[in-house]
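A favour, since you know our C-alpha cells better than I do. Just paste the record in under my message, thanks.
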Amino acid sequence: MTTQTTTAQTPGSPTAEPNKGLIGIPEHIGRALATAGGALTVISTFLAWTWTSAFPGDLTYYGYPGGLQVLVLIGGALTTLFGLASYGTKGLRWLTPAGADSAIKLAAIGTFATAWYTIIAISATLGGLVHLEPGGWIAAIATLTALLGALALPFERPEPDPHDPDDSEWEKLRHETRHTFAVLRASIATGRTRPARELPAYGEILIIVGALTTGLIVFTYGIGTSYDELFVGFLITAGFGFTALAKAGLINRVSAITAKHRNVTLIGAFVAAAAFPFTQSDDQYATIGVYILIFATVALGLNIVVGLAGLLDLGYVAFLGVGAYTAAMVSGSPSSPFDIQLPFWASALLGAAVAMVFGVLIGAPTLRLRGDYLAIVTLGFGEIFRLAVLNADGTSGPDITNGSNGISSIPNINILGFDFGQEHTIAGFTIARFANYFLLMLLITLVVVVVFRRSSDSRIGRAWVAIREDETAARAMGINGFRVKLIAFALGATLAGLAGTVQAHVTYTVTPEQYMFAHVVPPNSAFLLAAVVLGGMGTISGPLVGAALLYLIPAKLQFLGDFQLLAFGLALVLIMRFRPEGLIPNRRRQLEFHAEAEAPTVLSKSGA
C-alpha cells in the first residue's frame, strides 16, 4: 500500500497533490477491477469473437484462442499476474521487484489497445459491430474495466512548478501542459528495486536459459506473423509487455544475472539463434533472418566507431560495399573482370583486409577533424565510393565493376564440399539455402561480438571511451588521440568488410544502389546509424536488437504503402523522445540522460 506523507508548506509555495490515481476511483476498488478485468480478459479469449472465418486468424472457435486472441490472452495474463503480485500473493512477488502498480497500468493499456484494435479491425473488415460475437463484447468490457482500475492506482505526484501570475494565457497553457506530462510520467515511474534473494549458480543459469528461450519464441512469432493485423497487434503487445516487465524491475534483475554470467549468456544466445532455422517449416523467414544478421553485424562494427570512440561516420556502408565487391571479384563470377575463384575463407580475409586498407586510407587524412566536419567528410566518402563503382563500367571509367549492372551470378559458397546453395538434412531437419547462410552469418556475428567485447574491455577500448567523453582531456592524459581513432576506424571497416563478403554470395549480385546513404531498404548508412542509436550506443545487444527492429518493422509495414516511411519515422521520433539513451543502454549513458535516476552502487568497467 502507498503511504502518504505530509510536509509543511510555506506561503506562496506550490502545494503537492496527495497520492492518488489518474481517475477518482478508490485504490482498493481500482486494484480489484484491474485484476478481475485481466482475468475476465483471459476468459474472453476462449470464446468466439466473430461468427465468420472471413477475418484473418479465424476467431470463431470456442475453447481455442487464435490470431489476435493469443496476444490479448498474453496481455490479460500479465495484467492478472501483476495484480495478484500487488496483493502480495505468495509465489508471485518475484514478478515485481520494483513494484507492481506501474506494470499493471502498462499491461492494462497494452491489452486494452490490442483488444480494441482487434474489435475495430473486425468491424472495418466485415462491415460493422453486428459481426461481433459475445466473446468480443466481453473482451472489450473486460479490458476497459482493467484499464479504468489500473488508472485508479495511486502514485507520488510531482509538485507543480511555480509560475508567474503575469504570464500570458499561452505561457500558462505551456506550464500546465508540462505539469500534465510530468504527472503522466510519474504515474508509470519505476519504484525502488528490492534486494534480490541469493540464488545458486545453476538457478541463475536456468533463468538465463528461460529468458533466451522466451526471446527466441517472441522473435519467431513476430517474424512469422502472416497478416498485417496480427503484426500490428504483436507490436502493441510486445512493446507494452516489455515496458511493463521493465517497470516491474524484472528486466533489470535478469540483466544483472546475465551480466554475472556473461560467457554463459553469450553461448546461450547464439545457441538459441542457431535453433531458429530449425523452428521454420520453409526458407521464407530464414531469408529475413540472414539479412537481419548481416545488418546487425555491420551495425555492431559501426558501434565501435560511433558508440565506443564517438566518431560520427555517415559513410560506413561503403566498407560493406568494399567487402562485397572484393568477394564478388574473386568469386569466379562471369561478370568479374578477374578470372579467379578463391575459396571462401581466402575471399573473406581478402575482403576484410581491403576494407581495412580503405578505412586507414580514408581515416588517416580525416580523423584529425571532429564532430560535424568529420561527419561531412565520411558522408562524402560514402557517396564517392558509390559513384566510383557506378562509373567503373568501361565507358565512364575503367571496366572493373560493370557499372550499374553490378557483378552478377555470384556462385554459392562451398566449404569442404558443403554447398550452401543446396538443401541439407541435419538431425532429421531439412534446411535450405538461406538457412545455411543464416548459420554461416551467425558464426561471423559471433566473431564480431567477441572482437567487440575483447576490444571494449581492453586498454585500447578504455582509450576509445576516454576520447569519446573528452578528447582534449584524454590527450592531456597521454592518449594518442589520432592513433586510437584510426584503430577504431580500421577495425570497424574490417568487420563491415567481413560481413560484406557473405552478403555478396547471399544476394547473388552486388550493385552500387545497395550502398547508398539513405534508402527504404537497409542496410544503408542512415539505417545503420539509427540501429546503433536506437538499440543503445556502446553495448553489444543494443545494435543487434536495433538492427533487427529496423529491418523487420519496415518489411512488415509494407501494407501502409506510401505512408510506410512516415509511420516508421514517427515511431523513431517517439522512441528517441522518450528513451534517448536507446532500448538497451549503457548504464553510464542512461544516467547522462536521466540525471534524476538513482546512481548504481557498484560501477564496473562497462559502467553498469
